Amino acid sequence: MFACFYVPDFPVQASLLSLSTETRASLKLTPLALLDGPANLPRVFALNAPARRAGIQAGMTKLQVETYGGILLRQRIVGLEDAAQNTLLEYGGKFSPRVESTCAGAVILDLTGTEKLFGPLKGMARKMVMNAAEIGFDLNLAVASNPDTAFHAASGFSGTMIIPLGEEARHLAPLPVSVLAVSSGILEVLEGWGIHNLRSLAALPTIAITERLGQEGQYLQKLARGENVRPLLTAETIAEFTENFEFDDPVETLESLFFILNRLLQQLCSNLISQALATNELRLTIGLKIKQVQNQPDNEEHKHEWKLPFPTQDRNILFGLVRLHLEKTTFSAPVQKITLEVIPIKPRTAQGNLFAPPSPEPEKLEITLERIRGVVGNADLDGTACVGSPRVLDTHKPDSFTVQPFSSMGETPNAFPAIASVVAFRLFRPAIETSVELNREKPKSVWLWDRQRQVLAASGPWSSSGNWWNALVWKREEWDVALKVPFGIGFYRIYRDRIRRQWFVEGVFD
């Protein structure tokens, strides 16, 4: 089943939505018209029922309306209508996760599966109308088996209507043809045929109307019979989870900041939980109040963000991260404003193991890592992160790696595939300086562990270089050699640093 909320005279109700309940109630009984158009010739764009009873019509000029007397005129504000439509969408979202913004002042809800939450349709409809009055809307409500039938019934009848399955045509029959989205040309043809309501349109032969009016005529007849079935074009609302607080007087103590931050995070986490979401990214912006010097701005901002390896709804975890960061941060001025933002994602689902001991929670690991960052810092002098998971860079430069944040959301990007059997290479850190005897530019012996070791076999050279444009330039010539050692034959990698003109033993193959 589908329900349609339709707000009659939507522009007028939208213009009054920001007023108090008593003011709205008094203005509903007062003839009211909205003006729109150029300033030199505004015309009536929308009006309420008392204004229509007074003889006012859409399209009248302001001067014409003023001759009637007793008509309240207001200027149309499109922003108020957009805000009212968003309010109507949010209200529909309280009863169904699938809501369509059909047109200005109308939304359609998919009620499938909501009976267990809200009870029978009659009780649900009564609750919908009562709650809508509390937020400022006087609306029509219709419930039907398909979206179009519900929309036409809500826009054509006042009050609440529930149409049982199979009785769509009987309930829609008294409505005029103009309630459908009919082009002016087809409407003139129907009026010429004497078709004024949906009962007459539904009774026409389908083949004959298709031959004369084409596919549009067949589509209109399906609407008149309540037979058109279509999917909802659900509105994908992007929720913003942002909270901010501005102090009357700038504060300088962490205790004052922590009190407000705890409250803001509690509100953000409550909003996430209410929408079955979590977050793995937290952004903090702190506005500082500084004295104006030489025409410079009198405020600046401190920004920091956390990208968590897990989605969470736990306020204590987020507050712990923020607290640890602020305890090691020094501000140059008092704090004037705080803004917190979380990026919503789907929550984590995990199945526990009944026969294995519980593993450490990733939330506790992130708090521990934040404490470590407070000791060793976030990054070294080269800009490489100090805390995280190492990852080999896609380069030929030796010992090239970076540190990336830990992640439990899936496999690490660029991870190497699992291999059944591999050859391990044990690096010597630092590499062992050595001397190499060459025979026709090929290693003949290598000085290793205080003895000259004979080279049984050698493969190479592999020459590589890079970073010639800065001080980190490197250039080397590598060889893989088999050496005769006391325990048999050992396989080693040696290389010659062409810049330093020195040989090194880099490591051994297991």
Descriptive report:
31% of the residues lie in helices and 31% in strands. Helix 1 (10-16) crosses helix 5 (78-93). It has a 7-stranded antiparallel β-sheet with strand order 15-21-20-19-18-17-16, with no helix packed on it. The protein has a 5-stranded mixed β-sheet with strand order 5-6-1-7-8. The chain is α+β, with helices and mostly antiparallel strands.
Characterize this entry briefly.
The protein has 510 residues and is α+β, with helices and mostly antiparallel strands.
From the structure provided, what is the oligomeric state, counting identical versus distinct chains?
A: single chain
| Rg over C-alpha atoms, rounded to the nearest angstrom | 37 Å
Beta-strand percentage?
Answer: 25-35%
Largest sheet: 7 strands, antiparallel
* Approximate helicity band: 25-40%
Quote the average pLDDT: 84
The number of distinct β-strands equals 21
Side-by-side strand order of the widest sheet: 15-21-20-19-18-17-16
Distance between the termini: 69 Å
Low-pLDDT segments: 409-419
User: Number of helix segments?
Assistant: 15
Q: Specify the overall morphology.
A: elongated
> Structural class, judged by helices and strands?
alpha+beta
